[in-house]
């Protein structure tokens, strides 16, 4: 029988557009205020892609930093899974574009689409390919340019989102290392009954246009905490652990109030929660790897730590992944 493989994180990286848009910069764009945005969401600023900055360029930059952190080169990678809802082109996949820009011409690359939960879907997908031996080392990337699908006249959505990318390098290694490192448990969920609460009103097969993001924010909010806590509790049960065993909780960064309420309901100490929504806004599939890379580089997340990742978004899709870093 072939040996069991576990997927270990070897390095992380991230990239943000150069331009920062602060809450105050919405003056003259829509009727809003710094106070409203901070109080309702915790967001203070977000990065907005400029000319020449795209999902692929941000993904490539994040991937290069992750490779450097892992002490690897592009040729070591034989799988790229890129999560995005804002690809450079309808096709081919942004992942193959990144693969080419990194100079890789072997292995395989593809996109996954689960909006804000995309990074967890991508991580879980890459984990499966490594476990079954189809690939040895994977780049898992979350990259978005949501600024390009926002309705800049709709104050209920345009203040919430930002652009960016984050990446991790995963390596498949034989199970049994005493450090116990690797992806331990993943629980993914979706329910298309909630499609109309958060969607884009265009697409290649319907309008032939890209469309704009539409959200019933209050409705999404109503479901978020319950869905997040349910799937995390399923993770805890599968891993036979509790909230006190977690070293770091890295939730999807949509709204500070959702993050705080979820941590409180689960009994996770607020000091263990990684928060970047204040600086990045909601970057959809990029939000978790951006937050992870921030906490790795500032020395919070260290090898051996038990890290809980969580996301919820359009679809609805949601999920949680537990990683021994
Ligand atoms: O990543 C995918 C997951 N997405 C989310 O998790 C988002 C979930 N939803 C939310 O985070 C919140 O629902 C929002 C931040 C989007 C909105 O907060 P809320 O407390 O649910 O506000 P609301 O939508 O109930 O709106 C309250 C008021 C409304 O005015 P009235 O009807 O009470 O007079 C809105 O028109 O705030 C008004 N409003 C604004 N005011 C100033 C909406 N947007 C703005 C704005 N500035 N930008």
Strand and helix layout:
Elements (H helix, E strand, L loop, with lengths): L4 E11 L3 E4 L11 H8 L3 E4 L6 H16 L8 E5 L10 H8 L6 E5 L5 H14 L5 E9 L9 H4 L4 E12 L7 E9 L7 E3 L12 E3 L1 H23 L8 E4 L4 H11 L10 H4 L6 H11 L8 E8 L3 E8 L1
Parallel strand pairs: 4-5, 4-6, 11-12
Antiparallel strand pairs: 1-7, 2-3, 6-7, 8-13, 9-10, 12-13
Helix pairs in contact: 2-3, 6-7
Number of helices: 9
CA radius of gyration: 19 Å
Q: In what range is the share of β-strand residues?
A: 25-35%
Coarse shape? globular
Question: Bound compounds, please?
Answer: oxa(dethia)-CoA
Q: Overall mean pLDDT score?
A: 97
Describe the fold and architecture:
With 325 residues, this protein is α/β, with parallel strands linked by helices. Strands 1-7-6-4-5 form a five-stranded mixed β-sheet, with helices on both faces. The radius of gyration is 19 Å and the shape is globular. Bound molecules: oxa(dethia)-CoA. The site of oxa(dethia)-CoA (UT7) has 18 residues, from helix 1, helix 5 and helix 6. The site of oxa(dethia)-CoA has 18 residues, from helix 1, helix 5 and helix 6.
């Amino acid at each position: 029988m072939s040996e069991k493989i576990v997927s270990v994180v070897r390095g992380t990286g991230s990239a943000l557009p150069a331009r920062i848009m602060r809450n105050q910069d919405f003056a003259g764009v829509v009727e809003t205020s710094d106070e409203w945005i901070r109080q309702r969401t915790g967001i203070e600023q977000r990065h907005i892609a400029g000319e020449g900055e795209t999902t692929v360029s941000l993904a490539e930059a994040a991937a290069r930093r992750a490779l450097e952190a892992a002490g690897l080169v592009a040729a070591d990678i034989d799988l790229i899974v890129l999560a995005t809802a804002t690809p450079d082109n309808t096709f081919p996949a942004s992942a193959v574009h990144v693969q080419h820009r990194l100079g890789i011409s072997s292995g395989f690359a593809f996109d996954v689409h689960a909006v804000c939960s995309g990074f967890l879907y991508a991580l879980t997908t890459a984990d499966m390919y490594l476990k079954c031996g189809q690939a040895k080392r994977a780049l898992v990337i979350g990259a978005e340019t949501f600024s390009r699908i926002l309705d800049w006249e709709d104050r209920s959505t345009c203040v919430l989102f930002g652009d960016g990318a984050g990446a991790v390098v995963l390596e498949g290694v034989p199970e049994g290392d005493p450090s116990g490192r690797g992806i331990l448990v993943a629980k993914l969920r979706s329910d298309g009954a909630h499609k109309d609460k958060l969607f884009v009103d265009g697409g290649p097969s319907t309008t032939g246009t890209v469309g704009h993001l539409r959200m019933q924010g209050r409705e999404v909010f109503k479901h978020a905490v319950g869905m997040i806590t349910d799937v995390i509790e399923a993770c805890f049960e599968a891993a036979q652990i509790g909230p006190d065993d977690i070293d770091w909780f890295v939730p999807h960064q949509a709204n500070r109030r959702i993050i705080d309420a979820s941590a409180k309901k689960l009994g996770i100490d607020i000091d263990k929660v990684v928060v970047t929504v204040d600086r990045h806004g909601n970057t959809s599939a990029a939000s978790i790897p951006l937050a992870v890379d921030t906490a790795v580089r500032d020395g919070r997340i260290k090898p051996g730590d038990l890290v809980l990742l969580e996301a919820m978004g359009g679809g609805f899709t949601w999920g949680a992944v537990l990683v021994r870093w």
